[in-house]
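INTERNAL AUDIT FORM
Audit reference: QA-55
Scope: verify that the stored structure record matches its stored sequence.
Auditor: D.O.
Record contents follow.
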Amino acid sequence: MSKLVDDNVEYAKLLSSVNIAKTGLKRQLSPIQVAEHIERLIEEEGMENTLMLIPLKQKLISDFRILLTFPETVQDLIIWGASKDGALGFSVCVFIGPLKKTEDRDLLCKEAANKSLLVTEVKEIVKFFREHDVSLIDVIENITKSRPKITHSYMVVISFLKDIQKKITELAKNSNQSIEELIIMSMNKKFQISGITTAVVKGENIILEMNKEQYIHYKTKIKENNLEFDKITEFLVS
């Protein structure tokens, strides 16, 4: 069996997989394959020569080698980039590596993959766990529950003419409601959209915040009723 440096194809794959910054090229090897190639290179050439043969500092070489200490079931999950869709990001694994107990590593790997944990979260989890006498699962739960909840909303702007604005103002006054409350009630009555909680009147516009389901329903109703942008409020108060 020839040495890795004499295998032009595999050696080229290794180099192209560790030296693609800002090139836009796709890595030809997975993180584990890179780790295996580096390990082979060290065995065949020694660490000193390896540092000259590949464009990596010793710390990063160590980061790749630590991947080989994980069980195969974990190795198969490791990908480039961030953890996502049940896979583990390379950098995340590097920071899980220092955990000594296999069961702790396995647990954090599983949680990192399932919850798409960020590198910063994993670093915080490992640091806290190593410094305090608490269970790893409790540390994971405490840190991940503080994540900001990300919600996706749609802002809808409805314009109205001055005569309609005057009518809406009068209707709101007569019903002892704010204009915003009247609009929200009318959206439910005319468009069958319930649950809108945010409405703001600014000048000649009404701004509504909707979730995805509400927004899709709203667009469908607009199309069904052939409503132009300045006719929507007229329809609401008709």
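Auditor finding: record pair retrieved intact. The longest helix spans residues 31-45.
Action required: none
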